[in-house]
Amino acid sequence: MKILVVSDTHRNHAVLDSIVKNNLDSDLIIHLGDGENEARDIQNEYPQIPLVYVKGNCDYGVHRDLQVVTACGYKIFCCHGHNFDVHSGLQQLVDAAKAEDCQIALYGHTHIHRTEFIDGVYIMNPGSPDSPRNHNEPTYGVINLTSDGQIGMNIISVKK
């Protein structure tokens, strides 16, 4: 199962559309906040790909702050990250994911891509395809899950 993970697109419809067009084989799109308008457009333009959206600190819609998604037998904790103080560390995020029995935790907010494994939880921040920080390239994430227990997490640079 291929999951496309994006965050912090900040009204850049063109970049999100380009990412989705390059990943039409995705089984699921997860947007981790700060991009509600363009996420809604993607949901309308590509209804064949399910989309999960969580509210970011710059969103004003009625979206949930976090969601737990089950995909290919894995539980995935999805949040923007600002409510878990991710600028100061990831332990609050890891603890929240473990409390929901999640094997994977996804967050955005920092605009800095990151993948790691902490206390039994796979962590991904896809970065930002619109406005990366710390001299990083614009990025998004792809997760590949298999029913035999393989978890692949990749950070992909946005082609300009």
Question: What does this protein structure show overall?
Answer:
The protein is of the alpha/beta class. The protein is 18% helix and 32% strand. It is built from three helices and ten strands; from the N terminus they run βαβαβββαβββββ. The chain has helices at residues 13-21, 36-45, 91-99; strands at residues 2-6, 28-31, 51-53, 66-71, 74-79, 104-106, 114-118, 121-125, 139-145, 151-157. The strands form two sheets. The protein has a five-stranded mixed β-sheet with strand order 3-2-1-9-10, covered by helices on one side. Strands 4-5-6-8-7 form a five-stranded mixed β-sheet, covered by helices on one side. α1 runs parallel beside α2 (36-45). It is globular. The two termini are 27 Å apart. The model has no long low-confidence stretch (mean pLDDT 95).
Fourth-level CATH superfamily: Metallo-dependent phosphatases
What's the arrangement of strands in the largest beta sheet? 3-2-1-9-10
CATH structural architecture: 4-Layer Sandwich
pLDDT < 50 runs, ≥5 residues:
none
- The fraction of residues in strands falls at 25-35%
Shape: globular
| CATH topology assignment | Purple Acid Phosphatase, chain A, domain 2
- Total separate domains: 1
The CATH class designation is Alpha Beta
> Helical amount among residues, as a percent range?
10-25%
Arithmetic mean pLDDT: 95
| Helix-strand makeup class | alpha/beta
Instruction: Report the span from N to C terminus.
Output: 27 Å
**Radius of gyration from the CA trace?**
14 Å
Summarize, please.
The chain is α/β, with parallel strands linked by helices. The chain is built from 3 helices and 10 strands, in the order βαβαβββαβββββ.
